Amino acid sequence: MRIAISGPPGSGKTTVSALVAQRLGYELVLVGQIFRQMASERGVSLETFGALAEENETIDKELDDRTMKIAESKTDVVLEGRLTAALMKRNDIPGLTIYIDAPENVRAKRIVEREGNDFETVLNEMNSRERSEKKRYKAYYGIDVSDKCSYDLWLESGEMTPDDITDIIIKEVRRIHVEDARQVQEGV
């Protein structure tokens, strides 16, 4: 089963993706790693490549195309990225699509704990980045990542641990597997 986990910065999507992949024995694909690989292929720093992506929409589109090719070619995989779940739905790639969110103050606090800097700076940078991404995703694909219709599960991580969220996802994966097996037995 393909599992796509999306969400904003600081939501816990990367941590949960790693836990889900580990518990299921699935491959983990992080879109950020693909982005880093693309920067390396061009011989530029990650910072420079990020700045180029802000000005050149073909970089985002190449990143998303690479991600969707991976999604199409693999089955037992967890794909983590801000736009991955919505793109899988849009491209009719079967799988479980999940959005993990948390209140912005919780997300900013997590980023501060992970990366340092002061809370207000992180909050402002996070909000600026999200506005930019939301605008680009809408312009490039007509996708609003905050539209709950793009996801099978929408989970709030603000008051839950990564293990709590992982347990919910694993339970849903098992439910889908049981349902699929029953349909096969019934010849549906």
Give the secondary structure arrangement, pairings included.
Layout: E1 2-6, H1 13-24, E2 27-30, H2 31-42, H3 46-55, H4 57-73, E3 77-80, H5 84-90, E4 96-101, H6 104-115, H7 119-141, E5 153-156, H8 162-186
Parallel strand pairs: 1-3, 1-4, 2-3, 4-5
Describe the structure in your own words.
The protein has 188 residues and is of the alpha/beta class. The chain has a single domain, classed as 3-Layer(aba) Sandwich (Rossmann fold), CATH 3.40.50.300. It contains eight helices and five strands; from the N terminus they run βαβαααβαβααβα. A five-stranded parallel β-sheet has the order 2-3-1-4-5. Helix 1 packs across helix 8, helix 2 crosses helix 4 and helix 6 packs across helix 7. The longest helix has 25 residues. The chain is globular. The mean pLDDT is 90.
Structural key phrases:
five-stranded parallel sheet, about 190 residues, Rossmann fold, alpha/beta
Q: CATH top level?
A: Alpha Beta
Q: How many beta strands in the DSSP annotation?
A: 5
- Indicate the CATH architecture: 3-Layer(aba) Sandwich
Total domains: 1
Task: Quote the average pLDDT.
Answer: 90
Q: Please, what is the CATH homologous superfamily? A: P-loop containing nucleotide triphosphate hydrolases
Shape: globular
The topology string of helices and strands comes to: EHEHHHEHEHHEH
Straight-line N-to-C gap: 19 Å
- Proportion in β-strands: 5-15%
Q: Class by helix and strand content?
A: alpha/beta
How many helices? Answer: 8
